[in-house]
User: Fold Putative ABC transport system ATP-binding protein from Micromonospora eburnea.
Amino acid sequence: MTTQTLTAPAVALEGVTRTYRSRAGGVHAVRGITHAFAGGSFTAIMGPSGSGKSTLLQLAAGLDRPNHGRVTIGGTVLDSLSETALTKFRRTSMAFIFQSYNLLDALTAFDNVALPARLARLPVDGAAVTDALDRVGLRDLARRRPPELSGGQQQRVAIARALYGKPNVIFADEPTGALDRNTGRAVLALLRTLADGGQTIVMVTHDPLAASYADETLFLADGQIVGRLQGADAAAIARRMNDLEQ
Ligand SMILES: Nc1ncnc2c1ncn2[C@@H]1O[C@H](COP(=O)(O)OP(=O)(O)OP(=O)(O)O)[C@@H](O)[C@H]1O
Assistant:
């Protein structure tokens, strides 16, 4: 892992705009967003349905390209990369944690954790894979496949995958959306640990309690950042969300 100071932006968005064409006309999903996510920071993104959260996350992760503006991750301008180079860059520089876990059912937990390294044609360090599974409490379940694991266990496999490669940036879209409260809290505590260890976390969530684990919450409305709260508790975050949804 590249060690970063808290002041170096791990992910920078500059004037990022994404418009979708539809039969009814253009949908301005993200409108000129500029924001720097500091290295080692944990940021939550909240906002009403349709405010552009998922689009913003996809743009920041290079899964979608902006119509205008640019995204820089660890000093690399994503726009300057070909599709092939971008895919390779994504495999080594970032991890994704989704509500739906995104694990391959045919592979064991161990092989799911090792998958990004294999796809990037890097040697797999078996002891490090086991260590990553151990850190999320799944050492004994390494040989199980996702259908043989609970939702919380599957999400912990996804987190172990993010732990193993030690990517600088972890993007999470509703990582606790499908989990019960206690399992969700355990997952959030793990994400908090990753940020405290220097990885940068950008997480979309609808849940003020989940956002309270972050250092900062950004509030989106109509494709723009309309507010932010630092170090706020769940009640303060919920109040701000209520104000936005009025
Ligand atoms: N592929 C697409 N084609 C056309 N419009 C799209 C597409 N994806 C998203 N949109 C539109 O862009 C806007 C932002 O969508 P986005 O999914 O980013 O919002 P969101 O804040 O993540 O919503 P939710 O909380 O409901 O998941 C919405 O108006 C949505 O309908």
